[in-house]
Amino acid sequence: MNGSPPEGARLLPWTGPEGRPCYVIGDGTGPVSRVADAVESVQLGMAGDLLDHAATMLADRRVTYGELHYLAARLSESLRDVKRVAEGRRGGGGSRPW
Known about the structure:
By secondary structure, the chain is of the alpha+beta class. It has one domain. It has helices spanning 31-59, 65-90, and strands at residues 9-15, 21-25.
């Protein structure tokens, strides 16, 4: 493969070995697509929860550097997940219409 996704492939919300993108080819109704839908739903829900938690932490002036560092690391991970979901949905390797 030349770095481009296969025709009609959906970018999955996880990576494979060495951080490489994973794809599934199909009509979007198979078992891998259903698992991908569930993982995306969890990732997006966790991102929303994390944003709420971040707002609470940032409003508290007693939060330590270590707590903020941990928060920043989790926000970074979550943003990476949400970006992958968005790329898959816009057609950056996904066949989803939205």
